[in-house]
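Posting for a labmate who doesn't have an account.
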Amino acid sequence: MDNYKSAINFYLLATKLKYKIRSGWDSKHWNIKSDRLESVAEHIYGTCILAIGLDSEFNLGIDLNKVIKMLVIHELGEVLVPDITPFDGITKEEKKQMEHEAFKKVLGSLVNADELYALFAEFDAHETNEAKVAHYCDKLEADIQAKVYQDMGLHHSLDNQENNVVFTSPKAKEMLGSAKTPFDIWYEYDKDIYKDAPVFKRTLDYVKDNDTNI
């Protein structure tokens, strides 16, 4: 019976992400004008679909199954810790420690816990081809969602962002001079992430230049 308990406890903890809202869209960040905001689990699903689509069209030269597995588990720590953005006053080192400790707790006594943790650590290191692609999918999915919300008319204008902690960043503030829309800020802030990944940069450019309402 212990195996059943381990499997179901893991399931019950992990699927709490269905009900956890992505903090980037909340009132302290982009304050999206909707009662129905994206959950962490929906973000995870989006990253997996993005990986499948891009690998289909551009043959990324990866073990797609490994990438999908990385993406499915990459946010598990957020069951127990907040969805921390780069603008929330927590260092990368602190965030990493919090998320890794939480990840291990969510895995519990699963037989494959060590294997899954190693896969998560690989993802977090961004060194292997699969980890890099998974990382790019994670970031690009958020950029795309920002454009989707914009095309749905759910962003506040750039002159109505007084509570947005993103603008505590000097880099984000600098962009206000040339940016016309909230997505312009996302685009300029994130585009360099993909400087060594042309497929992802061109995908971001495509999303920027095209309406996502289909």
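Reply:
Got it, the structure tokens are right above this. The two ends are 48 Å apart (CA to CA).
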